[in-house]
UniProtKB/TrEMBL annotation:
Key words of the record: Glycosyltransferase, Transferase
The protein's name: Glycosyl transferase
Glycosyl hydrolase 94 catalytic domain mapped to chain residues: 307-734
Domain Glycosyl hydrolase 94 supersandwich: 11-292
UniProt keyword Flavoprotein, yes or no: no
Organism: Fusicatenibacter saccharivorans
Highest taxon of source: Bacteria
InterPro entries: 6-hairpin_glycosidase_sf (IPR008928), 6hp_glycosidase-like_sf (IPR012341), Gal_mutarotase_sf_dom (IPR011013), GH65_N (IPR037018), GH94_catalytic (IPR033432), GH94_Enzymes (IPR052047), GH94N_CBP (IPR037825), Glyco_hydrolase_94_b-supersand (IPR010383)
One function term, GO molecular function aspect: transferase activity
Length: 810
């Protein structure tokens, strides 16, 4: 069952019913100011940091779903309705929500009145612009009452929803004409404020939430709206809102637009007050002046469209499969950019109040967007590296506003250091910019301890070398990629969080997954060292990699698949000897993509075991059999019900590893089949089962042991976006950035006869045509570049050339 359709020409997903299984959302914003917006106008806005600078309130885990948002109530006689259906839920005569790239558009009608609401965050300013166009499609004059509504958050989102003894007393506003200023805590503590304004004279306003709604009423039936006149209330404490009341008269066929702006403003440190108790409104007025006319809004929308067209043009696929094309060209890359901006911090499943930016997460996300915005990738790498400790370990998370490590989470996830090597290698391969390695970067954000980024990579590499266990495999610490696999867990009292040893010391649980990472990214470290002229370090790194490679063969193979780990007592995890959790997905994918066991004939066996034991119709589950009871030696992974999350759920993030692994052994048909199983565009018609958005990936799909097999959760912010784009763009379609240029190594389904890719790389455009007349699955037999035959599959870089026409025959 579908609730909408793709519009590939406009790069939109068009939702045709407001009653989607879950709120289907979009992200507005590209750098500093962001908004989440659902298909019923729900969501929230923030500046840079969803925890510390939240502009509007959102009520998670509430019913009815998806409260609050940006709401526009239209009163037409006794009927009150909203362009996005919520919160009144008045049945509409027509409804569509168009989620596009950086904007959302709502087109609806009721009783011959049409409403078109366009919401976006412009490139130039820290604000959300909402343009509402009302049209009278009837034959008689219409008299309407239009009422806007947002509810302000008191900046720190955690404090806002917990510290009521204080917050009920601090709300403050100013009203000037059509501008409502939220200045709570402006005084001496802060120098920022929010403004909510409309570009026309108003007939009233409200800023006191309780007076606006009325006693014991909700957003669905505000007393003020039903009355048809504003209360002109000025909030003092309690709940603070912004609401404009506008009386509208429309002749038959007449249209009128209203431009509402919700913005973040900040004064200079020495410019806090315009007069006693009156904020300096100059920054707000300058910003608002940019969005007073339809022409200005249209220009800002055109600039936004041009921005996204320019980004997505850097990797463009032409092929016969329209679903593959729309994911590669539009939605996968778009999701990679959103995930880069947010990491895992702000979604409808992450409240934006805790996690901040992840060290591991952000390094992986970089793999999916580095080709789009390499300059910002460079900046992100330096930010991440600055949270690293001198021993090579790192804070697992940091706050985007302060760029300080998250003390609540701390460190001890022993895979983290290796992801920094992965991110740096991807950046250098894409850009050829080795100079980043000379940048001075703090340790633990302490400038007195700054060292070149190259030294950070060495500390990352050496951290694993110096943290090996009894089987000469890397110690897992608190956890590796699987945060719920807590093999050094020593106590977990009922109701208490799982306890582990210190950051990286203590019991000797070992990870085959980290071993595979070390082999793959240790080779990258050696390659970087060699290209930097440090042959001695390169040889040292290769020797250490070979030791761990051999340790995996000696102690990490279980006969038909790779083990997952050894626990603190030295017992096998992910072995045929285990009662439950006999096989895990992670080492089967990552060992093979690191080419461990390929020449020994183990890789094919491991992937066959995945197919026979872990694969389902909706994707590959994380482990089997599912854990049916709690195991203290395994920790949180066994605390989930069977089939959910890490306990045998379909963790979409690591499904691409299996698909990539299949390309390593040359199975194009198999790799593409696995790609399609979790790809949103291919499963759009089961949206009533899948439930999350059919245009972006989710973190998890319930596995075959779950009560709701096939149901997805945690959409948008997931490493699935980056890893899936790496899989399809580099391993299936086969365009691989390398230190010396682009290498072509496709591994495709045998019935794919031809496809073309236009790719921007190091200042030049590459127009690459792949031909597959023999219906092969893997490899390139001949390569022609600008009319000249080239040996091998590396496109040589020609100095001064800005356009390459390439033909590769499989």
């Amino acid at each position: 069952m579908q609730f909408g359709h793709f519009d590939d020409v406009k790069k939109e997903y068009v939702i045709t019913s407001p009653k989607t299984p879950l709120p289907w959302i979009n992200y507005l914003g590209s750098e500093n100011f962001f908004s989440l917006i659902s298909n019923t106008c729900g969501g929230y806005s923030f500046y840079k940091d969803a925890k510390l600078l939240r502009l509007t309130r959102y009520r998670y885990n509430d019913t009815p779903l998806d409260q609050n948002g940006r709401y526009y109530y239209i009163k037409d006689g006794d009927t009150v309705w909203n362009p996005g259906w919520q919160p009144t839920q008045t049945p509409l005569d027509s409804y569509e929500c168009h989620h596009g790239l950086g904007y959302s558009r709502f087109v609806s009608s009721k009783n011959l009145v049409a409403a078109e609401l366009t919401a976006f965050v412009p490139l130039a300013d820290s604000c959300e612009v909402n343009r509402l166009m009302l049209t009278n499609n009837g034959t008689e004059e219409k008299t309407l009452a239009l009422t806007s509504f947002v509810e302000f958050c008191f900046w720190n989102a955690v404090d806002d929803m917990t510290n009521f003894q204080r917050n009920f007393s601090i709300g403050e506003v100013e009203i000037q004409g059509s501008e409502i200023y939220h200045k709570t805590e402006y005084r001496e503590r802060r120098r920022h404020y929010a403004v909510y304004a409309v570009n026309c004279p108003i007939d009233g306003y409200d800023t006191d939430r309780d007076a606006f709604l009325g006693a014991y009423r909700g957003n669905d039936r505000p007393e003020t709206v039903l009355r048809g006149t504003a209360g002109n209330t000025v909030a003092s404490g309690w709940g603070v809102i912004g609401s404009h009341h506008i009386d509208v008269t429309l002749k038959p066929g007449e249209s009128r637009s209203f431009i509402f702006v919700l913005g973040y403003c900040e004064n200079a440190a020495d410019d806090k007050w315009e007069a006693p108790g009156v904020i300096n409104k100059k920054p707000a007025k300058e910003m608002l002046s940019h969005y007073q006319t339809d022409e200005q809004v249209d220009a800002a929308l055109a600039e936004l469209a041009s921005y996204w067209d320019g980004l997505l043009a850097k990797y463009a696929l032409t092929c016969a499969d329209e679903k593959l094309g729309r994911m590669v060209n539009i939605w996968n890359q778009y999701q990679c950019m959103v995930t880069f901006n947010m990491s895992r911090s702000a979604s409808y499943f992450e409240s934006g109040t805790g996690r901040g930016m992840g060290f591991r997460d952000s390094c992986q996300d970089l793999l999916g967007f580095v080709h789009l915005i390499p300059d910002r990738a460079r900046e992100r790498l330096l930010d991440i590296a600055a949270t690293q400790f001198e021993d090579g370990s790192a804070y697992h998370q940091y706050q985007p506003l302060t760029k300080k490590g998250n003390m609540d989470i701390g460190s001890g996830f022993n895979d983290d250091p290796l992801w920094l090597i992965a991110g740096c290698a991807a950046y250098i391969k894409e850009t050829g910019d080795f100079s980043i390695l000379d940048e001075q970067v703090d340790f633990d954000n302490d400038s007195t301890k700054a060292q070149p980024l190259m030294e950070h990579l060495k500390r990352s590499f050496d951290f694993t070398v110096t943290h090996l266990g009894p089987h000469k495999l890397p110690l897992i610490g608190r956890a590796d990629w699987n945060d719920c696999l807590n093999l050094n867990c020593f106590s977990a009292e009922p109701g208490e969080p799982f306890q582990t040893t210190g950051p990286s010391e203590g019991p000797v649980a070992e990870s085959i997954f980290i071993a595979a990472m070390f082999v793959k990214y240790g080779k990258e470290y050696a390659a970087i060292c060699r290209r930097r002229g440090n042959e001695e370090e390169a040889v040292y790194a290769e020797k250490e990699v070979e030791k761990v490679y051999q340790a995996v063969l000696d102690a990490g193979w279980d006969g038909e698949w790779f083990l997952r780990a050894y626990d603190a007592a030295g017992e096998k995890v992910g072995s045929k000897e285990c009662e439950e959790g006999k096989i895990f997905i992670e080492p089967q994918g990552f060992c093979v993509l690191a080419e461990i066991g390929v020449k020994e004939g183990l890789a094919e066996k491991a992937l066959t075991s995945v197919k026979n034991i872990l694969e389902t119709k909706y994707g590959v589950v994380l482990l089997q059999p599912a854990y049916t009871k709690y195991y203290l030696n395994l920790g949180e992974v066994s605390s989930y019900p069977p089939g959910y999350k890490e306990n045998a759920g379909i963790f979409c993030h690591n499904n691409p590893w299996i698909s990539i692994a299949e390309t390593v052994v040359g199975h194009g048909n198999r790799a593409f089949d696995l790609y399609r199983k979790i790809c949103p565009a291919y499963i759009e018609d089961i949206s009533e089962i899948h439930r999350t958005e059919p245009y972006v990936y989710s973190q998890m799909i319930a596995g075959k042991d779950a009560a709701h097999f096939g149901e997805a959760k945690n959409s948008w912010l997931t490493g699935t976006a980056a890893w899936t784009f790496v899989n399809v763009s580099q391993y299936i379609l086969g365009i691989q950035p390398d230190y010396d240029g682009l290498t072509l190594n496709p591994c495709i389904p045998s019935d794919m006869e031809e496809f073309k890719i236009r790719r921007y790389f190091r200042g030049a455009w590459y127009n690459i045509t792949f031909k597959n007349p023999e219906h092969k699955e893997k490899g390139v037999s001949s390569l022609t570049v600008n009319g000249t035959a080239v040996e091998g599959n590396l496109i040589p870089i020609t100095e001064g050339c800005t356009e390459y026409d390439v033909v590769a025959v499989m």
